[in-house]
Amino acid sequence: RLCELLDNAGRGWRKLAELAGAEKRFKCSVEELEMCSLKVLEPRGSPTQCLLQLLAERDCTLRYLLGCLERMGHEQACRVLSSAVQDMIRITVQPESQVVAEGTQVSLTCCAAGPPGLAYQWFCGRQEVPGATSPELVIDTATLAGQPEWYICRVNCGATFAFSRWAHVRVEKSSSPSSASGYCLTMAGLQILRQPRPCHLAEGDTLVLECRAIGNPPPQYQWFRNRHPVEGAQAPQLQVKLVTTAERGSYSCRVFNLFHEVWSQEVDVEIGEGPRQTSVTPHLLCAQAGVSHSVTPSPSPIFAATDKVALLIGNMHYLHHKQLQAPIVDVHALGALLRQLDFKVVSLLDLCKAEMQMAVDEFLLLLDKGVYAGLLYYAGHGYENFGNSFMVPIDAPSAYTSEHCLCVQRVLREMQQRRTGLNIFLLDMCRKRNLNDDVIPQVGALEVTANIVFGYATCADAEAYELSQGELSNGIFVTFLKRWLLEDEKITVLLDKVAEDMGTLEITRGRQALELRSNLSERRALTDPICPLGQDESSVRNLQWAKAHVLPESRHLRFDCGVTVQLGFAAEFSNIMIIYTRVVAAPKDITKCEARLTDIPEELHVDLKCTNKESPEELGSPLAPVWSLSCPSCCLYSRICGLQKLQQELAFTVCLQYRYQGMDDFVEERQWVNVGRPLIAKLNLQ
């Protein structure tokens, strides 16, 4: 229905793409918008559907989409989306229980976010409160003396509704100051006397925030950073010595006692950038030989990369070990995000040891002085012995040792030799001790380069888990990492935020926690711009990278019977390609025909269940909705995996089967097709 409304309207899909792109991670490139627009040339193609799929891949929420439609002023599209979504109402401010003095008024507040037209109704117990249809409920306590009452608010939009939590209102009668059983009601509750103030500090300074309150019973305190409690910060004054950018964020203080709770204002603490709030004047004056010189403090350095390169490896289908589900989704998700940050991305699935080593070797060829190389992400089985981490290939034997695996620290040493500007390892694997391996590998001494970051999905001697979500599975690590990856933050600060988010997940608490190891001394970020040193070096890298990403050109095959078949290609990963066949022209006397792939090279070990399927979903790939966007409809699809195993050019047969009008038997014609070495096969990893 949204496609019908937005495909041809003046306020259509292009306007939606423009508004959605206000948030960087949802911005579509010119090529992506062109891909959407070309959908009008297909019989059942829809630019809007193509755009929505792109937004979905980037984790765009329905709430954000609805906000974009509201800004467009497209009321009909808003109504369609609102009515189709049943879980859009979210209580943002809950009513709080209170103890109040008799004769005063008390206010309860409930606020909700959701589709337009939210309606409120307050209840006292099971009874509706007459006329209480606004977010705020004001109660006259004169009628409640001595009677505790429970209140709740219902928020609805049509048949969709949500309830707040219960709020308990207790009214106490006034007592004389001499009463031994009561406390002075004029001091009941809490009042904040001093609010924390925002501040701007340099790394190494001391952070001091203060919140003072009075109340009876006496107040207690708990400080929060980015709405997460700060461990051990339970005093009116929060003090942190020798701050780093990791302490940057929004701070607030929760003040509470037995009966009440209030929050301070939320203040921002900036560290390491911009002007500092000190008494130092913008220009320093120094006198020398009677002459005053104006000295302007130098601005913070702006870091840039000569290039940005990433190698992503996901191992799933192990020959002798438990099969994994998440790497295919995680590698694809990270690849899509890193491309938005202008990374050159090579993404590979299911590699044996020799192929992993060759992939790393080719990756190293992309690196040079100043390149932000380092993004090497690995998802699969792994272990850690004697401080060294090992990635397990799919052909590792049941009792594998370091001899059968790749040592991460060896890869790092080779990367250092290329003089890269930033080396990042994101290891989404277990780090349990391997009892079969008692060899201490001699990796060699690493250089002190102050540009190394290790992000481990779990702690030492712990396991990493997958999160099952219907047919898809995500690793816990990437589930949270992709929320922050596009943020303009120092990479260590970004990973700190991921760690905080992971800590909120109940099912893995105490079993999996991100571990960050780093010696990074500069504020380097994945968002830093690219400034090539020279055209020659950049051209060589671009050529090497492009080799692994060239798809065969779509072509038309003409058969003797007059049938024309389109042969097209799409990439799922650098080593997985989709081939589709489509009959685009046939004589009138041919009533039925289809083109199938046969004779695919044996070294690819193609599963026949993943060839010549009438719909992308039948191929069994969870990413089918993504790559099928670039494929026309009414095709037969085949999924070709393991292109790195090709020992020669990829050649196969296209078998055309057709039937003439009035005949029962099919006729068959064949054409031999050679498409060269597609994608990663060009690099000869064998």
Describe this structure in words.
By secondary structure, this protein is α+β, with helices and mostly antiparallel strands. It has 5 domains: 1-87, Death Domain, Fas, CATH 1.10.533; 90-171, Immunoglobulin-like; 191-271, Sandwich (Immunoglobulin-like), CATH 2.60.40; 307-546, 3-Layer(aba) Sandwich (Rossmann fold), CATH 3.40.50; 550-682, Immunoglobulin-like, CATH 2.60.40.3360. It is built from 13 helices and 40 strands. Strands 2, 5, 6, 8, 9 and 10 form a 6-stranded mixed β-sheet that branches. Strands 12, 15, 16, 18, 19 and 20 form a 6-stranded mixed β-sheet that branches. A 6-stranded mixed β-sheet has the order 24-23-25-29-30-33, with helices on both faces. The two termini are 50 Å apart.
* Overall residue-averaged pLDDT value: 82
Strand content: 25-35%
Q: Give me the secondary-structure category.
A: alpha+beta
Compute the number of helices.
13
| Subunit organisation of the chains | single chain
**CATH topology tier name of the largest domain:** Rossmann fold
> Overall 3D geometry?
globular
Which stretches are poorly predicted, pLDDT < 50 over at least 5 residues? 175-188, 273-298
Q: What are the key terms here?
A:
686 residues, alpha+beta, Death Domain, Fas, Immunoglobulin-like, six-stranded mixed β-sheet, 40 strands
SSE layout and pairings?
Layout: H1 2-6, H2 13-20, H3 30-37, H4 47-57, H5 62-72, H6 75-84, E1 90-93, E2 98-101, E3 105-109, E4 111-113, E5 119-124, E6 127-128, E7 136-140, E8 149-157, E9 160-163, E10 167-172, E11 189-194, E12 199-201, E13 207-210, E14 212-216, E15 220-225, E16 228-229, E17 237-240, E18 249-256, E19 261-263, E20 267-271, E21 284-288, E22 291-295, E23 308-314, H7 327-340, E24 344-349, H8 353-365, E25 372-379, E26 382-385, E27 388-391, E28 406-407, H9 408-417, E29 423-428, E30 452-456, E31 466-469, E32 472-475, H10 476-484, H11 491-502, E33 515-518, H12 535-547, E34 555-558, E35 564-573, E36 576-585, E37 590-598, H13 624-627, E38 636-640, E39 651-660, E40 667-674
Parallel strand pairs: 2-10, 12-20, 23-24, 23-25, 25-29, 29-30
Antiparallel strand pairs: 1-4, 3-7, 5-6, 5-8, 8-9, 8-10, 11-14, 13-17, 15-16, 15-18, 18-19, 18-20, 21-22, 26-27, 27-28, 30-33, 31-32, 34-35, 35-36, 36-38, 37-39, 39-40
